[in-house]
From TrEMBL:
It comes from Paraburkholderia metrosideri. It is a multi-pass membrane protein. It comes from the Bacteria. PROSITE patterns: TONB_DEPENDENT_REC_3. Residues 1-22 are annotated as: Disordered. Keywords: Cell outer membrane, Ion transport, Iron, Iron transport, Membrane, Receptor, Signal, TonB box, Transmembrane, Transmembrane beta strand, Transport. It holds the Pfam family Plug. This is TonB-dependent siderophore receptor. It is found in: Cell outer membrane. SMART domains: STN (SM00965). Belongs to the TonB-dependent receptor family. InterPro entries: Beta-barrel_TonB (IPR000531), Beta-barrel_TonB_sf (IPR036942), Plug_dom (IPR012910), Plug_dom_sf (IPR037066), Secretin/TonB_short_N (IPR011662), TonB-dep_rcpt-like (IPR039426), TonB_sidphr_rcpt (IPR010105).
Amino acid sequence: MNFSRTPRPCSSGANAGRRGHAAHRVRRALAPTVLALGIAAASSTLQAQSAAPVNAAASRSFDIAPGSVDTALDMFARRAGVSVSYDAAEVHGKITQGVRGTYPVATALEKLLDGTGLAAVAKMDGAWLVQAATPSAGPAVPGATSNTLPALTVESTRERETATGPFAGYAAKRSATATKTDTSLLETPQAVSVIGQNQIQEQGALSLVDAVKYTPGVQAGTDPVDNRFDSLRIRGFEPTLFLDGMQLPYGASLYGRPKVDPFTLERIEILRGPSSSLYGSIPPGGLVNFVSLRPPEQAVHTVQVQTNTFGRYEGAFDVGGPVDKDGTVLYRLTALGFDGGTQIDHTKESRVLVAPSVTLRPDRDTSLTFSAEYQRDNGEPQIQFLPAQGTLLGNPNGNVPYGKYVGEPGVDEYSRTQAWLGYEFEHRFNETWKVSQKLRYAYLDTNLFAVAGAGLQPDLRTLNRQVLSAPEHAENFTLDNQAQAQFQTGAIAHTVLVGLDYRWASSRIALGFGTAPPIDLYDTVYGASIVHPPVVQSTSQIQNQVGVYLQDQLAYERWRLTLSGRHDWVDTSTTNRLANTTATQNEGAFSGRVGLSYVFDAGVAPYVAYSRSFQPTIGTSFDGTPFQSTTGTQYEVGIKYQPARSAIAANAAVYTLTQSNALTVDPAHPQFQTQSGKVRSQGFELEANAEIAEGLKVIASYTYTDATVTQSNGADLDKRVIVVPRNQASLWADYTVQRGPLRTLNFGLGVRYFGQTYGNSANTVSIPSNTLVDLAFGYELGQLSPKLDGVRFSLNVNNLFDRRYVATCTSLNACYYGTSRVAMATLRYDW
């Protein structure tokens, strides 16, 4: 398919501020871009007044630096005021020497394509088609006069794939998560997986865990039915969640975690390995970056309803498009609501969500997008803490029922309110420089009151219980300023990114803990009197992080070298509100990354990479010395395969990752900890996303992870990290009938295998391996009647054979069942 880059019409000239310390940091972070914003506004007005389309014979001044052909063609179209169409796969990986000087449009395009193996064909409407320079390609510029396109050429008015936009099928070609620039995944020297809306919809994903369960390197669903958070590990470590490149708010406990609904997303991107060189404080395993749905250039209208076998009902809609005929104002409004049961008896959950966004484009070089989201979740907590005897191990009284609820109906409660508001601004000054700024304020309120298991009594049927209370509030303010330049030094093309970001975060929790009356697991009677537990911990924390970073992506012939470095200053203040004491920590950290790859014409790119990460650790040792940040160091070797003219993407990576300064027991003072611990994760990951035949799409992955505690003063020395299997494998295939009366009918079938794990640090609780099967079915009802055009019915069944399994245990008193069979029907209407 050809993608088109068409300059947007220019608009007329008429279209053309928490605590003192934190506020000071905000002003300091904002200062570098205040001038840039002013210049951008002035530049926008001037360009809006002066820019106008030209014909092929008219001359324009060009200053397009050497670099990738696709980026250069976009710059050319914008500068020349013409439409340029090309096949993204055909130009992928090709390098142009650029064009500088004043030339007729046709001549400039010829110079731009010189030596690339591409040629341009003039079209009847004054646009240009760029394609391989073959005898059948038609006359090339500058003397091109042909008005006939080659046979079988298909055009689309949609722009080429971008790092934040949609993509067809399962194989994304571009991403910004690893580099913060719009970069080809083939040329990115780090393991990145991208899950797009096509995959989310076809697999019926309702959560992050659902969406990533066919992704390598990710241990998903260790506690799949717990509604407090999405349980996830990447290369053995819990990741940090980002939205559009900025960190979401986190509470200080496990109870305060954000959850993002996949219906509001364009993509979910998994960046594996240490990545502090661009993002600052994150765990060594990597991060998850959610990419929001953005206001579209072409109108979208979607309404859908869903229901499942647990009695859940959901309604959702997504509408958006241009507000005016020139497309200078775009909008989008996404909303959903659901309510219903879960696989656990006596529990329900509900959600109300609304996400509006507006994009302003006063001229072709400037955009400003405002976005907001509000989400409210309610329901009963699904913590459980079931005993190993009766779930993982045998029990003379039988197995604990899969839907057993050990809390108290009408007493337990879990709620989450999360909201954010922000903007993204971008302005391009010329073909070399552009600046951008992202800003967001977000907050997260969670309230947990739960009765949960606390171990079996000797009769192996009476369950002791505990009561937990954990209201928590978290918020953050994030700001990321960037300047990007594309230029050439000799034969080397550069994409340089300079950035300064700031994050202010706070959290506050009051943790209560007590005992509750026991229950009989096998003849349960509810209605016990539950006393609100006393507060045993009450803390508040404020953290400021300022980081400056520099990245250079160098291209020399087929070589690609990525260099990035960042320095952070992190101040943390933690207050014990019960003891009325405050501890402060101030530290700085440098993080770096270097990656080298070689891109062959066949779409093969081997690479090597080294990267580091850091993450502040709160607390002190016995002598009162504040803990230093834990650090991560990784060596990675991989190969990527993404041939032109195909919907295939395959990646393989081998890595060794070490986390240092991990906390472990102080042998001289067992009530305290020291930072002498070390964890090593090493492994192999294989991923393939492809359309291997017309209508047949496949996702295949394999993961080998050896995550081991290599230094420790505790029982976990030389033991495997809990809940991380050595082996995982998955295969998903989806086939859509292409012709005949059953055209658009599709079937999907998936198999997921996850190997044996351990449920405690001493590795004495072993959890066996499991294999699950998923099924999908869909049909466009417009094939039955024109009146139903745009209506699609789909059915998704997870755990088709209702495999009963224990997902994980964290001790003999805290085991979690996996998800039982659940079928979900969806009726969707797009127009």
